[in-house]
Write a structure and sequence with these properties.
Radius of gyration: 23 Å
Strand content: 25-35%
Family: Belongs to the ABC transporter superfamily. Drug exporter-1 (DrugE1) (TC 3.A.1.105) family.
Helix content: 25-40%
GO cellular component, one term: plasma membrane
Structural class: alpha/beta
Organism: Nonomuraea zeae
Distance between the termini: 15 Å
Domain ABC transporter: 13-243
Keywords: Antibiotic resistance, ATP-binding, Cell membrane, Membrane, Nucleotide-binding, Translocase, Transport
Number of strands: 14
Oligomer: single chain
CATH superfamily of the largest domain: P-loop containing nucleotide triphosphate hydrolases
Number of helices: 11
């Protein structure tokens, strides 16, 4: 697909042609990205595709080998201090101190941002209330649940009230309840006008939160559009075949090779795009000729999982 970006004048984050190599391995091969002010862009990609490397460049933690990027209107290579003043970052691993209380952590971060003692206390109290941590403010972080720690980590990134927020897989490892709670916080931040770039391995998360989704693979952005538009690109429906026996899966895959099925051996499933009203009948005929029985047949509307698989497979 053609990747269309907004003009840099309305973007809080804008990158063109970012290149980065480590040793002889090229991780980014010309990444283009834009995040309009006040919106949330979800950056998806397989492990090792360059999501975190992109975030590290945009947050000035890593210098690109080529290309340009601005964050908050400031060049990430020439105006690093100005970029850092404009952003907040929640990395993959929590940066809070488990030996301190929640309140002490936030006051410590406030001190690092050169807030006075009185202002630091006031800002910590505001954030503890906003992130539903006031009742646990004086408890050591070592006693917090995973969800509470991630909310505290996000609160710490909001100490300087940044206009732009980078969230690098913020809900990884959280249980569904804690993930839903953090989604609520992210929606609130977005509603208040914060611009957010989110990397995630949870496609449902991107579908729930993002205004736009960018898929990165092979060091490049291979798609950039709204979740609904991306799902429309993979077709109206997916055909899912549940086979009776696991040993039939390879034979079924060979029989349907022309349809490019996604094969899940463990689940005894084959998934393929439904191309026409006759496609279902034709598929079942092929399986019958191959001596394969379908235990159950489903029709599914496209999901971001389908988008992700199709784009990352095609670009691999």
């Amino acid at each position: 697909m053609n990747v269309i970006h907004s003009t840099p004048f309305t973007d809080s984050i804008h990158a063109e042609g970012l290149v980065k190599s480590f040793g002889g391995t090229r991780v980014l091969a010309g990444v283009d990205l834009s995040v309009p002010t006040g919106s949330l862009l979800a950056l998806l990609g397989p492990n090792g595709s360059g999501k975190t490397t992109t975030v590290r460049i945009l947050t000035t933690l890593l210098a690109p080998d080529g290309g340009t990027a601005t964050v908050g209107g400031h060049d990430v290579t020439r105006e690093g201090p100005a970029v850092r003043r404009a952003i907040g970052l929640t990395a993959q691993h929590a940066t809070v101190d488990e030996l301190l209380t929640g309140r002490e952590n936030l006051e410590l971060f406030a001190g690092l941002y050169h807030l006075g003692r009185r202002q630091a206390r006031r800002r910590a109290a505001e954030l503890l209330e906003r992130f539903d941590l006031a009742a646990a403010a004086n408890r050591r972080v070592a006693t917090y649940s995973g969800g509470m720690r991630r909310r505290l980590d996000l609160a710490a990134s909001m100490v300087p009230a940044p206009r732009i927020l980078f969230l690098d897989e913020p809900t990884t490892g959280l249980d569904p309840r804690s993930r839903a709670e953090l989604w609520s916080v992210i929606r609130e931040l977005l509603g208040s006008g914060t611009t957010i770039l989110l990397t995630t391995q949870y496609l449902e998360e991107a579908d729930q939160l993002a205004d736009r989704v960018a898929v990165i693979n092979g060091g490049r952005v291979v798609a950039d559009d709204s979740p609904a538009a991306l799902k429309r690109q993979v077709g109206s429906e997916r055909l899912v075949l549940h086979l009776s026996r696991a040993e039939d899966v390879p034979r079924a895959g060979a029989a349907l090779a022309g349809s490019g099925p996604h094969i899940d051996v463990d689940a005894r499933e084959l998934t393929l795009a439904l191309q026409s009203p006759d496609h279902l009948r034709h598929t079942l005929d092929l399986l019958h000729r191959a001596g394969v029985a379908a235990e159950r047949v489903e029709l599914r509307t496209p999901t971001l999982d389908d988008v992700f698989f199709e784009l990352t497979t095609a670009a691999a």
